[in-house]
Amino acid sequence: MTRFLSAIAAICLVSLPAVAENATTEEVYACAAIVGSEARLACYDAAVGRLKAAEESGEVTTITRKEVEQVKRDSFGFSIPSLPSLALKKSGAQDKELDEVTLGVKSVSSDGYGKLRVTLDNGQVWVQIDDKGIREKKAKEARIYSAMLGSYKMKLDGGLAFRVRREQ
């Protein structure tokens, strides 16, 4: 019996990619198709072992939908490679585009030309890029949303919308 289990474990190890560089959840899921319970268990043990080693070495990580959404919120206004899209493609989930955020305002200041600089509670900094005379120095909430041609607009406490660019 011990030889039989060793042979099955060896087959599973040979049939699945080796160590961390190719460890995936698909390897674990593939074990479910194995008919014999002992062979299936050996396959699971081998696949999970590789996946755990890959995670411990930093080659593989798992992220939740909540974490993906947080990355989207934190990166709103910047053009960066889309980690959220990469994470959701695999699951088959729809990656809806984030087109607006509402965040608390930490401070509002203006430069010598009357343009606003808005620092949000999460550390984002947005600067006004149009010529509208906005005088919201004590705003509590900022709604930032996508506008035409990749630009953004902001409303402070539901007031007048003005064009902004994310600086930080």
What does this entry look like structurally?
This protein is an alpha+beta fold. It has 3 domains: 2-57, no CATH class; 63-98, no CATH class; 100-166. It is 35% helix and 21% strand. It is built from 5 helices and 6 strands. Strands 1-2-3-6-5-4 form a 6-stranded antiparallel barrel. The longest helix has 21 residues, at 37-57. The model is unreliable at 1-21 (pLDDT under 50).
Number of alpha- plus pi-helical segments: 5
Largest β sheet strand count, sense and barrel closure: 6 strands, antiparallel, barrel
Low-confidence stretches: 1-21
Number of structural domains: 3
Radius of gyration: 25 Å
Q: Overall 3D geometry? A: rod-shaped
Total number of strands: 6
Helical content class = 25-40%
Strand line-up in the sheet with most strands: 1-2-3-6-5-4
Which range does the strand content fall in?
Answer: 15-25%
Mean pLDDT metric: 76
Q: Whole-Å distance between the termini?
A: 63 Å
Structural class: alpha+beta
Q: Which series of helices and strands comes N to C?
A: HHHHHEEEEEE
Short description:
The chain contains five helices and six strands, in the order H-H-H-H-H-E-E-E-E-E-E. With 168 residues, the chain is an alpha+beta fold.
Furnish the topology, listing elements before pairings.
Layout: H1 2-15, H2 25-30, H3 37-57, H4 65-75, H5 83-89, E1 100-110, E2 116-120, E3 125-128, E4 141-146, E5 152-156, E6 162-166
Antiparallel strand pairs: 1-2, 1-4, 2-3, 3-6, 4-5, 5-6
Helix pairs in contact: 1-3, 4-5
Q: Key terms for this structure?
A:
single chain; 168 residues; alpha+beta; 3 domains; six-stranded antiparallel beta barrel; 21% strand; rod-shaped
